Amino acid sequence: MKTVTVDLGARSYPIHIGSGLLGASVLYDPCLGSGQVMIVTNTVLAQHHLPVLQGALASRSPQTLILPDGEATKTLATTERIWDALLAARFGRDATLIALGGGVIGDLTGFAAACYQRGIDFIQIPTTLLAQVDSSVGGKTGVNHARGKNMIGAFHQPRCVIADLDTLHTLPDRELRAGIAEVIKYGLIADAAFFDWLEEHLDALLDRDADTLTHAIAVSCRTKAAIVEADEREGGVRALLNLGHTFGHAIETGVGYGAWLHGEAVAAGMVMAAELSARLGQLPAAAVERTRSLIQRAGLPVHAPSSLDADQFLALMAVDKKVQAGRLRLVLLRAIGQAELRGDTDPGALRALLEHFPRGP
Ligand code: NAD
Ligand code: GLY
């Protein structure tokens, strides 16, 4: 097992990465308070992995809430279902919520925990690669609004993150590839050597080789932890974690939540950000090609959806959370391994990118 620590003073927590962790009671004990425990999961995880977790927590007699699957579940209405269940069972401020699932369950459960009685503890048990390398770490929680992704939320750090590689055995290939998009993101924004390593080890990652996965998850979590430690509430450098996300969120919202996976939308968005960086003369064409090629080899989209034209993209991008004083701010690349947040992007260059970027299904 590898453990990466997110060092945030009194709110520090471990991320445990390895095989066979889901059933290891010893990992939960230090993170559970004295109160009641509720597992929040969905119908898919309930079939595959819930019994092992329930076994590990048997001595705490946890309650379980099983929600519908899918991004469409990440709403305020579903959060209310969690609050209803907590109130019905008279959970107090010493209670702990446990999120067993991907980013949808993690974001929802974390948000429910952030608001219930002004904040209770929660534990993240991420079961998708995307959640293990990104969404379970850093304390961003929230839900979608019909007008924009993740528009309602709170910062609320988990007490610990338990990333069990064995849970990935049941993950569909398409979901694995979506997680690889976020892994590639860390190479692009902060770690050129890791990007080189990914170019070399992508096939082993796609084959789910355990050592390769462990390395990729640990490096990704270390990079994310360092960024979150430097800027927990996204006043500056944390925005770099949003490479590709302004385009990606526009795609997710534009095509309807769930039609494109988050990681797929981010993948296309990262190619768009790289190409825009090149159009602005700040990134060599060779770096754009390496970005496009790695993303394509991972089986991820390198095109935008044909249903979104440039005007629709611009309208959707205008509700991005990085908009400041009405000005769009975009994460762009200077090199592979070096990203920057720019608020002065030439609108003409952005429109030209959106008009000419390849479209596909
Ligand atoms: P997800 O939670 O919808 O999971 C993807 C699919 O895989 C679902 O159908 C799920 O039921 C299934 N699944 C999960 N684990 C499985 C397993 N082990 N075996 C079989 N099936 C499994 O999607 P995701 O990609 O994990 O997360 C995407 C969400 O995360 C988006 O809502 C995105 O906005 C959010 N996100 C949040 C952050 C953050 O910092 N909070 C960062 C990135 C993404
Ligand atoms: N996924 C972006 C962040 O955590 O800041």
TrEMBL record:
Name the record gives this protein: 3-dehydroquinate synthase
Entry annotated with the keyword Cell membrane: no
Family: Belongs to the sugar phosphate cyclases superfamily. Dehydroquinate synthase family.
Cofactor binding remark: Binds 1 divalent metal cation per subunit. Can use either Co(2+) or Zn(2+).
Record key words, sorted: Amino-acid biosynthesis, Aromatic amino acid biosynthesis, Cobalt, Cytoplasm, Lyase, Metal-binding, NAD, Nucleotide-binding, Zinc
Locations listed in the record: Cytoplasm
Broad enzyme group: lyase
Stretches assigned to the 3-dehydroquinate synthase C-terminal domain: 179-323
Cellular-component GO terms for this entry: cytoplasm
Gene3D superfamilies in the record: 3.40.50.1970, Dehydroquinate synthase-like - alpha domain
Organism for this UniProt entry: Candidatus Macondimonas diazotrophica
Function, as annotated: Catalyzes the conversion of 3-deoxy-D-arabino-heptulosonate 7-phosphate (DAHP) to dehydroquinate (DHQ).
UniProt KW Zinc keyword: yes
Pathway recorded for this protein: Metabolic intermediate biosynthesis; chorismate biosynthesis; chorismate from D-erythrose 4-phosphate and phosphoenolpyruvate: step 2/7
A Pfam family: DHQ_synthase
Binding site for NAD(+): 69-74, 103-107, 127-128, 140, 149, 167-170
